[in-house]
Specification:
The complex is a heterodimer of chains A (113) and B (111). Chain A is an all-beta fold and 113 residues long. Chain A is built from no helices and eleven strands. Classes of the chains: A mainly beta (113), B mainly beta (111).
Chain lengths: 113, 111
């Protein structure tokens, strides 16, 4: 059973704080993704990684950075949190095969005050 | 034009109804088509997967892909209150490329 865990279910931070969201998977998947999900806007891809130490920008990378030092761990960093980054953040993993099912974590609801 | 268009709903149907959910897309290179189901306060989970054109059936669920029309559908027969969720279509090219998601359709099945 694939397990994708995220460090917090709910998080409240202040404007300007540096925020770390962690995602850990136990399935030895190469590919990992960070999305945010907002009402009316759906899932939007922030960053993704197809290998350790590798990262690619998604559709909305501005204001975010990522770190992937180990295969099983992919961190999303908000360098200076702003109120428009209040959202649900979802991490996903995927094996490198022709059948690319993405497995999602439970999500982190981040509120920036 | 967005790459993937999906009516957000909400869609409300009585228990036992047949539900039809749809997405259109513009990228003719898409080869893999998926439907994810997301319950409230949970992450999405894969429901159906189809490669290229055709139909796929799994219990009460049928996925259809019409590549000539760039149109995919998910049918739910004998809908149940437990089917109440948001349904997201997703698709991708071959190779290591990210999934492209629709915005999701929120479905409520009323007992």
């Amino acid at each position: 059973d694939v397990k994708v865990t995220q460090s917090s279910r709910y998080l409240v931070k202040r404007t300007g704080e540096k925020v770390f969201l962690e995602c850990v998977q136990d399935m030895d998947h190469e590919n990992m993704f960070w999305y945010r999900q907002d009402p009316g806007l759906g899932l939007r891809l922030i960053y993704f990684s197809y290998d350790v130490k590798m990262k690619e920008k998604g559709d909305i990378p501005e204001g975010y950075s990522v770190s992937r030092e180990k295969k099983e761990r992919f961190s999303l960093i908000l360098e200076s949190a702003s109120t428009n980054q209040t959202s649900m953040y979802l991490c996903a993993t995927e094996g490198q095969s022709s059948y690319n099912e993405q497995f999602f974590g439970p999500g982190t609801r981040l509120t920036v005050l | 034009q967005k790459e993937v268009e999906q009516d957000p709903g909400p869609l409300s149907v009585p228990e036992g109804a047949i539900v039809s959910l749809n997405c259109t897309y513009s990228n003719s290179a898409f080869q893999y088509f998926m439907w994810y189901r997301q319950y409230s306060r949970k992450g999405p989970e894969l429901l159906m997967y189809t490669y290229s054109s055709g139909n796929k059936e799994d219990g009460r669920f049928t996925a259809q892909v019409d590549k000539s029309s760039k149109y995919i559908s998910l049918f739910i027969r004998d809908s149940q209150p437990s089917d109440s969720a948001t349904y997201l279509c997703a698709m991708k090219n071959s190779g290591n490329t990210p999934l492209v998601f629709g915005k999701g359709t929120r479905l409520s099945v009323i007992a």
